[in-house]
């Protein structure tokens, strides 16, 4: 296929629209260069790095308006590590899991693989929809994703009626939602995410906003695991007790990637300076609306998620007509510096997927839609 050259005046100022890793702002890179000159290669257990972690924890507490008795905890590994942490530390025996895409299914798979847990009660929805678990008196933890990154579906964060009274925890995977979608974290006991989405950092870290009930559950489960007759194994790397203890000292169990911490701290500070979660979620909603309205008006693509109430405002998915191959569109865009708008490979649809996290300028999103139109007209 001949190369399609998009006119310069149509191109976005920044061509990064990935669903994660996401765009990192120039100011973050500058902060990395400045802070990195003194922090990189130094101990994470000394004041300069601990102060950085403390700033992240305080900034996120303010950003999410967490209740006074909740805590911001962080640890090594990404959100996928927290699936196993939840299995080892937060689920006592039986979990209910809502599955409606690749990542929510992976949480269910982690529960299924834990030999000391019962098989989960799986509440499955079709890709493009969401499914929150129903109440069941056997369940001690309810799990689902606020945003299914693979499909562009957003689900409500609200406790299953009767679950809190029954002593069950609510565990929310917020990886591509946190920082972009509105949330009342008091509706969850563990609201966890990675920083390479809305928080514009690199991977290798997980962050969780934990309720007193989650902290108490972790202590209870860890104490029970130490009994001679227990079959539960909690590897030190997956110990939530250890992560909580270290976070209270503004450090992690193992050496963290300082680049990630520096990028994250700068982004959290920037978001709070702009107006916090209210500003961030409004900006993402504006960008998402641009794509959805464009797709609805288009004669060759449509929003994949048919229910407007379920459409994500951080990761937008649109289906292309069969006579337009997504690979042709994404290849042409990439040749012009517009990258990472590929659909999720395992979903297997003829689709584009656009990350509209807070670092992405809505004007660049408008430019993206014009560039897609330009490319499709010439295919």
From TrEMBL:
Record-linked Pfam families: Aminotran_5
Enzyme Commission no: 2.6.1.52
PTM annotation (N6-(pyridoxal phosphate)lysine): residues: 197
Enzyme class: transferase
Keyword Cytoplasm: yes
Reaction catalysis annotation: 4-(phosphooxy)-L-threonine + 2-oxoglutarate = (R)-3-hydroxy-2-oxo-4-phosphooxybutanoate + L-glutamate; O-phospho-L-serine + 2-oxoglutarate = 3-phosphooxypyruvate + L-glutamate
Localisation: Cytoplasm
Name under which the protein is recorded: Phosphoserine aminotransferase
Name of the coding gene: serC
């Amino acid at each position: 296929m001949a190369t399609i050259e998009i006119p310069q005046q149509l191109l976005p100022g920044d061509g990064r629209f990935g669903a994660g890793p996401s765009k990192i702002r120039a100011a973050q890179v500058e902060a990395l260069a400045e802070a990195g000159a003194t922090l990189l290669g130094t101990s994470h257990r000394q004041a300069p790095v601990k102060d950085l972690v403390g700033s992240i924890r305080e900034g996120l507490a303010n950003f999410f308006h967490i209740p006074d008795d909740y805590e911001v905890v962080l640890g090594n590994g990404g959100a996928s590590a927290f699936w196993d942490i939840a299995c080892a530390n937060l689920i006592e025996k039986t979990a209910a899991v809502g599955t409606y895409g690749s990542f929510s299914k992976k949480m269910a798979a982690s529960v299924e693989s834990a030999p000391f847990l019962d098989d989960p009660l799986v509440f499955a929805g079709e890709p493009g929809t969401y499914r929150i678990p129903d109440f069941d008196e056997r369940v001690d933890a309810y799990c689902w994703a606020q945003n299914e990154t693979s499909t562009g579906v957003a689900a409500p964060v609200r406790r299953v009626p009767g679950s809190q009274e029954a002593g069950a925890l609510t565990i929310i995977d917020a990886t591509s939602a946190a920082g972009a979608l509105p949330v009342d974290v008091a509706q969850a006991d563990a609201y966890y995410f990675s920083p390479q989405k809305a928080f514009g950092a690199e991977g290798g870290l997980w962050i969780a906003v934990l309720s007193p009930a989650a902290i108490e559950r972790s202590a209870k489960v860890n104490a029970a695991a130490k009994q001679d007759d227990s079959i539960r194994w909690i590897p030190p790397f997956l110990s939530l007790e250890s992560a909580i203890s270290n976070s209270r000292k503004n450090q992690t169990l193992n050496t963290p990637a300082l680049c990630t911490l520096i990028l994250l701290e700068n982004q959290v500070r920037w978001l709070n300076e702009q107006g916090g979660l209210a500003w961030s979620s409004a900006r993402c909603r504006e960008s998402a609306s641009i794509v959805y309205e464009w797709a609805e008006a288009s004669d060759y693509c449509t929003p994949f998620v048919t229910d407007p109430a379920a459409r994500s405002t951080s990761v937008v998915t649109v289906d292309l007509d069969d006579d337009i191959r997504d690979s042709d569109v994404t290849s042409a865009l990439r040749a012009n510096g517009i990258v990472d708008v590929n659909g999720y490979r395992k979903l297997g649809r003829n689709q584009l997927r656009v990350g509209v996290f807070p670092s992405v300028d809505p004007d660049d999103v408008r430019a993206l839609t014009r560039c897609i139109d330009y490319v499709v007209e010439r295919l």
